[in-house]
Specification:
The complex is a heterodimer. Chain A is an all-alpha fold. Chain A has a two-stranded antiparallel sheet. In chain A, helix 2 runs parallel beside helix 4, helix 5 packs antiparallel against helix 8 and helix 9 runs parallel beside helix 11. Chain A is globular, with a radius of gyration of 19 Å. The longest helix of chain B has 29 residues. Chain B has a domain of 236 residues. By secondary structure, chain B is an all-alpha fold. In chain B, helix 4 packs parallel to helix 6. Chain B has 15 helices and four strands. The chains are: A mainly alpha, B mainly alpha.
Chain lengths: 297, 355
């Protein structure tokens, strides 16, 4: 294969995978933007909802629309309940409280799925052909196109939601200052719950797409580790940032893996985004599109 | 025991900050020391001593992390990696240079401290979540480096066998010998941490934790103290890594992955942030929990599950309990076991009177 073809292949793959990362990062951004909390269990959300769909399809023989619909509903309800039980008491506590609460949640989700449905990897079949689409030198797996398209649709929808809709504007107000929002008559707790429920829905979609691509088991939650570089690069409170961050991470990890892996013996894919992230943290910690926080005593 | 605070009037800050706040504390410490040095090793067998040894090692690491996260308020999700730095330093020193144990132990700590301070540099600009993520990145980068640089990791399995430690010409081979040695290390770690916390450095850490801009304004050199916090904490972590290595007889990076970092964070959350006693409680709790759980599921489990499922149930139950307990403590008792202990003590302080 020619050099430029190899490069183009890596690039196109990176873009599509990157957009799929954006979908997961979107769930993270959503919660951070609305509630100032961050979800270290994002990957586990994805894994768990993928598991719900796979079990619905495989064990109960439900049709696809039912399995996905049920997973969306369950994850929304789960997000809603989670906010009520776990995250509300964390309001006003030191940062480590929320971090550890979501890390604890991650452990619970990791244990719960395999405990109930077994640890074996489950398939999550979608009615999408396996054969790659050939576009000149490019080989594009259809599932990645579907994933990227889903991601773009939802990113656009959430962009609109935050900019235009009443609920979205209320959420931004809550994120900006909970006290002022309360004084303006916004039901802060309600919007917190809505934000978590929305994260549940987005994660469920991520779970379907990624579950199809990788198969569903505990390892699927490792996708969540890619969320951190994405949101740090793009800015944790920015929907466009999630897209750009996702693209950067997707392209960098694919290109780095393609060109460097033979020299260093593998693993570049997991390593390069983090290196990039460290650099971003040093230079521009609030990300490309993020809001700079000015601290006062 | 009752009315032990009667007639003790502290008239100076020195008295208030003393290591032994009450005269009776000397007796308590004496009794605990007698129990730990004499009664326990005589009373229990090798297996239980090996558990105590695991706890002792965890105590050192938890105290270290508590200095950083609990006292200085800087979150680290990379402590597992700092431990691996200590572990591989010691293992390489022991195998290549035949360095004796008493050289490898502090050197492992020092190298880990240097690495920790470097990973801590971002803490000058970022904090909270961003710092957590930066240290997470540190964890992955260190893990990757150790795994991929064979000069450090010693080959395919990324594990190095170390010889049994020798002190004063005697090999520490049995769990009992290990126990006494670890106990001494733990005592040193505890006393050092207690003194650090009540001294100038500790107060600077607390000021930074509570409000770092304000701390800077009252003249605390934030740059120095944040890095110092990372260095001290990583020194503890490095020593923990060395101890693990000698305990297991092999340095392997799989012992020190992200899960380990989270275990230690769980220890200080469950035990209580910012206190040495909390770190000890947390280390005991988190180390023993999976062992008790495994024992319980292996005894009761076969009644409910097929034998082939028991292992699966055990690992996953462990995760659920572990995560659930972290959440439970955060929601119900954010100050951890140490606070529960204080509640009990305060209750008995004036018992049997109402107040």
């Amino acid at each position: 294969m020619l050099d430029w073809q190899f490069g183009a292949l890596l690039l196109s793959n990176g873009v599509l995978i990157g957009l799929m990362y954006s979908l997961i990062a979107l769930g993270f951004v959503l919660v951070y933007k609305a509630t100032d909390a961050f979800n270290f269990a994002q990957g586990e959300f994805v894994m768990f909802s993928g598991l719900l769909v796979a079990v619905g399809l495989g064990r109960y023989g439900a049709p696809l629309w039912l399995a996905v619909g049920a997973a969306l509903l369950l994850m929304a309800a789960f997000g809603f309940g989670l906010e009520r039980v776990v995250l509300r008491p964390m309001i006003g506590r030191p940062v480590i409280g929320v971090i550890m609460a979501t890390i604890g949640l991650a452990a619970v989700l990791r244990g719960f799925g395999p405990l109930v449905w077994g640890a074996a990897t489950k398939a999550l079949p979608l009615p999408i052909p396996d054969a790659p689409i050939v576009l000149g030198p490019l080989l594009i797996p259809p599932i990645q196109v579907v994933g990227a398209a889903t991601s773009l649709v939802f990113l656009a929808a959430f962009g609109w939601f935050f900019l235009r809709s009443r609920a979205g504007i209320a959420m931004r107000a809550v994120a900006d200052s909970q006290q002022v929002a309360m004084a303006m008559g916004i039901d802060v707790e309600r919007y917190f719950a809505i934000a978590w429920a929305m994260t549940g829905v987005v994660s469920a979609l991520g779970g379907v797409v990624w579950g199809n691509l990788l198969g569903v088991d505990v390892q699927l939650s490792l996708v969540g580790l890619k969320v951190f570089p994405v949101v740090i690069l793009g800015g944790m409170d920015s929907v466009p940032g999630a897209v750009v961050g996702g693209l950067i991470v997707g392209v960098v990890e694919n290109v780095a893996a393609g060109y460097l892996d033979p020299y260093v013996g593998g693993g570049t894919k997991d390593f390069a985004p983090y290196l990039l992230m460290i650099a971003a943290l040093m230079i521009r910690p609030y990300g490309i599109f993020g809001k700079e926080i000015i601290e006062r005593v | 025991m009752i009315h032990r605070e009667c007639g003790i009037l502290k008239t100076s800050y020195e008295a208030d900050m003393a290591l032994y706040p009450l005269p009776i504390a000397r007796w308590t410490v004496g009794v605990i020391a007698a129990l730990m040095f004499l009664a326990l090793p005589l009373a229990v067998g090798e297996y239980y001593l090996s558990l105590v040894n695991l706890i002792s090692i965890a105590v050192v690491g938890a105290i270290g992390l508590n200095i950083l996260t609990g006292v200085a308020g800087q979150i680290s999700v990379g402590h597992g990696a700092f431990m691996s730095v200590g572990a591989y330093t010691a293992a390489n020193l022991a195998v290549r240079l035949h360095a004796p144990f008493w050289v490898a132990l502090p050197l492992g700590g020092l190298v880990a401290a240097a690495v920790g301070a470097v990973i801590g540099i971002p803490s000058l600009r970022i904090k909270g979540l961003y710092l957590a993520i930066a240290t997470l990145a540190g964890q992955f980068i260190i893990e990757w480096t150790i795994n991929h640089v064979t000069w450090i990791s010693g080959g395919v399995q990324a594990s190095i066998e170390v010889p049994r430690p020798r002190l004063f010409g005697v090999a520490i081979a049995s769990q009992r010998a290990m126990y006494f040695f670890l106990l001494v290390v733990v005592v040193v770690a505890i006393v050092a941490a207690l003194n650090l916390m009540r001294g100038r450095v500790g107060r600077a850490f607390v000021a930074i934790r509570d409000q770092d801009i304000a701390a800077e304004i009252i003249g605390i050199d934030i740059f120095r103290y944040k890095l110092l916090a990372f260095a001290i904490s990583s020194f503890y972590a490095g020593v923990t890594g060395v101890l693990y290595t000698y305990y297991l007889g092999v340095a392997n990076y799989e012992q020190f992955q992200i899960g380990t970092s989270i275990d230690y964070l769980a220890m200080i959350i469950i035990g209580g942030l910012g206190s040495v006693l909390g770190a000890i409680f947390g280390a005991v709790f988190v180390t023993l929990m999976p062992i008790v759980l495994r024992y319980a599921t292996e005894t009761v489990g076969h009644l409910m599950f097929a034998p082939s499922d028991v292992a699966n149930v055990t690992t996953n139950l462990r995760l659920i309990f572990f995560g659930g307990l972290i959440i439970l403590f955060l929601v119900v008792e954010p100050e951890g076991l140490e606070r529960l202990w204080r509640n009990v003590r305060n209750y008995f302080r004036v018992w049997p009177f109402a107040y």
